Structures are given as C-alpha cells and as structure tokens.
Amino acid sequence: MRKTGIDIEIDFYGIVKTALSSYVSGRVYRKGTRPLNSQTEDILVAFVGGIDGQTQEGVVNVNWYVSNIDNNSGAKVPDLGRIKTVSHYLQTFIEGVSIENYDLWLDAQIQAYAVADTEQHCVNLRVAYKRSTIND
After folding, report:
1. CA 115/CA 101 separation, integer angstroms
2. CATH number of the domain that 72 lies in?
3. Parallel, antiparallel or unpaired: strands 69-70 and 43-51
4. Could you give the number of structural domains in the chain?
5. Looking at residues 1-21, what average pLDDT do you find?
6. 53 and 133 in contact (C-beta within 8 Å)?
7. Alpha helices of the chain — where are they, by DSSP H?
C-alpha cells in the first residue's frame, strides 16, 4: 500500500518519540504542532518530500532544538557541549533505527544552525528513506 506524506511522518514520529523522548526536557512534535514560543528542548519530526510509485523515496527532517546559554557577559551563545551531545544521540539513532518496510540512511551530515528570532539552535538530522509498496 502506498503511503501519503502524513502517513510517513507519523511512522517516523512514532519511532523518534519512542527512541529519543527521554533525552529531551520538552516533547516530540510533528510538523506544525510545536508551540511557537517554546523554550524547552524539543524534537520536531517533519516530512520534507518524496517521490511516489511502487517504490516511495523521500526525506524526513528530525530537528532537535537546544536553548542557547549565557556566556557570563549577558550574551546568549550556542550551548556547544549540548549540541555535540545531541549530535551524537542523533548519529547513534540513525545508525540503529529500524522501521518495518523502510530502508533508511543519512541524507546529509548532521549539523546545527541558529534558529532565527529565538535564542535556540537546531540540530538537524535529514533521513532519506526508500520503501517498496508491493509487499505492504
């Protein structure tokens, strides 16, 4: 059976929530559901896009939000120690995760970037997937 983008996002959300929710102070969210002004360390799972057919291929983002820290002079700076730890959690996750009927791999290197208009950085994991619709 072919799946829609929402179906694929739900599959990934379930596995991310099970595997990683105990490592964040906040929650795991699906695209469009994270509170706009959240200052907690949250994970957001979002379907990016895909190609439909007998074989479905695409990308899902897993974004882990990390709050900046005070640098003792009143400025907020990236929490590089936490970003490094989160990056390792995500690397371990992608190396060990298994979702039935999906082949998964890194679509890009895990990286962190500043989130505009917030005092947070986001550690991004882009997961590429391939799944056959014939055996469903």
Report:
1. 34
2. 3.30.2000.30
3. unpaired
4. 1
5. 94
6. yes
7. 5-20, 80-96
